[in-house]
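README, section 4: Worked example with a bound small molecule

Sections 1 through 3 covered apo chains. Here we extend the same pipeline to holo records, where the ligand is supplied as SMILES alongside the sequence. The molecule in this example is pyridoxal-5'-phosphate. Nothing else about the input changes; the structure line simply encodes the ligand pose together with the chain.
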Amino acid sequence: MATANTPDFNKPLYAPLAEIDPEVKNIIDKEVWRQFTGLELIASENLTSRATMEANGSILTNKYSEGLPNARYYGGNEYIDELEILCRKRALQAFNLDPAKWGVNVQPYSGSTANFAALTALIQPNDRLMGLGLPDGGHLTHGYYTAKKKMTASSIYFQSFPYSITPETNLIDYEGLASQAKIFKPRLIICGASAYPRDWDYANLKKTATKEGAWLMADIAHTSGLVAAQELNSPFEYCDVVTTTTHKTLRGPRAGLIFFRKDLENAKDLEKRVNDAVFPACQGGPHNNTIAAVATSLLQASQPSFRAYAKQVISNARTLASTLIEHGYKLQTGGTDNHLILWDLRPIGLTGSKVEKVCDLMGITINKNAVSGDASAQVPGGIRLGTSALTSRDMREEDIKVVAGFLHRAVQISLVLQKEAGSKLLKDFVRVATTQEEGKEGYKQVKQLRDEVRAFATKWPLPGVDVATLTKPEGILED
Ligand SMILES: *Cc1c(COP(=O)(O)O)cnc(C)c1O
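The generated complex, written as structure tokens:
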């Protein structure tokens, strides 16, 4: 609270957000409403806990702490040191790692910066690396480039050569990778993906890495929650470095982690290389409010309840897959081992963009995604769906079947709209989806399904929000 002596120039420090900045407050309220009234199926998203959000919104945001615990550039870090040490301990515990064999840096701001710091630690500028190609499910930061442009720092500062999935099975082409690595001689092989529904054979990758004298790094950004819950193969058995985001299946705040081996005979200095790469090479002061939130979410991820959550996420993804297959649709690899599925829409003559658009109009949030064999990267032929967030809203198999039914109808409506659009252009498709034209049915069907989705979605709770008292904020375009 301000005191009687607080000067006018400091009075704004004490007023609540709603009073200081109703504009931003209203935007937040609208986003809460969107999350409450919609169905979140973006595979990279999740709903973090109330406790995590409390830590993330804390006063720790005020503190500078460049450096590492007990070796900072600034004073006043006794509690920040305690926090960072606790966060590291919990990170190792959450992934069942022996502190004698593994260390972790908890300062990365996000997955992309964690990856760039890891590359900086492991290899030199212009060295060669191999990662799964973006159209095959890999991530931008694993060396992505196009014919015209080096798109990411991982291809600007390093030479990159992507490996791929096998066209027939759509599984990682481990043999192809091995024979390409023999010729290309990468210094680093990166595994892990953003759109790959199956598990990884880390032992196989390790064989190739050892043979060619390359580092092996796993980026488990998407699946780390499922790895922590021991529902998927562990990359820690075979990899030298493991990076992850903390906000996808791990269900924490937006941040990144870098795990590194401490027991390598030929790289005793790996710990120092990783730490120096994060700071000062790639980042400045750590975001201590985020580190507190990461620590809290890691505590939660270490509980038996989190393992039950992870099992449910996978079971829900499998149910979503099998229900869509029962409706006659094609999924890449025919199913899933993890939290996500890739739905190939080409057999029914739709693009990912159109279905994404229709779903958006109904409050079903998904993303268009490349599927194996797409003719053009500009027109992705599929969509990616994940069950992490819906599972965090308490949904189980029977509820996921209802969601699969909505998706089925959304796709059928898309076919109607495509016919009524009179052309294959997205803009004509959007026009008939959003305006009532004489004698056309698609628009009405969109509205009907949207109402059903909303009625279903608002039956579920939303972590961190008291939905019983939630009211529709100003500025929501809903009729
Ligand atoms: C999401 C993702 C990242 C990037 O994470 P950001 O937090 O968005 O920077 C990195 N790698 C993979 C495999 C991802 O899926």
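What to look for in the output: Residues 397-421 form the longest helix (25 residues). The chain has two domains: 59-301, 304-462.

Section 5 describes how to batch many such records.
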